[in-house]
Amino acid sequence: MKATPVRILYLSQILSHDHPRRAAFPDERLTVAELFKELNAEAHVVDATCEALPDPRGYAGVMVGGSAGSANDTEPWRLRLGEWMGTWQDVPLMGICGGHQLLARVLGARVAKMSRPQVGVHPLQLPGIPDFTGWVMHMHSERVEDVPPGATLWAEDVAGIQALRYPGHRWTVQFHAEMPESLAYGAGRGLGATAESWPQREVRAAVSGGLALFRAWLKDLR
């Protein structure tokens, strides 16, 4: 018998259509639907840019996705989201790219512009995740500069901090573990990736590794 799907709150930071960079990003409702179908999980997607943020205690955990802006930006919705993330520190969480950066900044770390964007597929080791392939997809121009108080450095590469772990089953990663192959190429090209930096074999490995990461996170929530 198939297990009952676990219910996750997904907070999107890029669904708003009035952002000037919005066209460079995929529709996250489609991305999340494909991801959660693969994971046998249910997602309640909330547009954090314009919708009220729910009480997360009605969900097994929370995912906070990437952003079209910066964790240092001061739009009212971003400040509300940062405050919300800082308040609910006892709720299991997975932060992705902008979600990774925003939580780190809220908890006292610096987030700063990189000398050059990291876009494409890159090698990375993520200890403790069964079946992690060692490849990840990057699409970011800022990074977390230091480890926030209470967090543990989980992974880093030549570009800096790539993953952090916090108490309470709260994991955050700089790379895009959530993006399916069907959307990766267009999103990568929109942010400057070349064919050489986006090879199909490594993209597929990164997608597989992302699923392995999410399965490991969900395992303790079921």
TrEMBL record:
The keyword Hydrolase applies. It comes from Hyalangium rubrum. This is Type 1 glutamine amidotransferase. It comes from the Bacteria. It holds the Pfam family GATase. PANTHER family: GLUTAMINE AMIDOTRANSFERASE YLR126C-RELATED. Keywords: Glutamine amidotransferase, Hydrolase. GO terms for molecular function: hydrolase activity. Its EC number is 3.4.-.-. InterPro entries: ChyE-like (IPR044992), Class_I_gatase-like (IPR029062), GATASE (IPR017926). Residues 34-179 form the Glutamine amidotransferase domain.
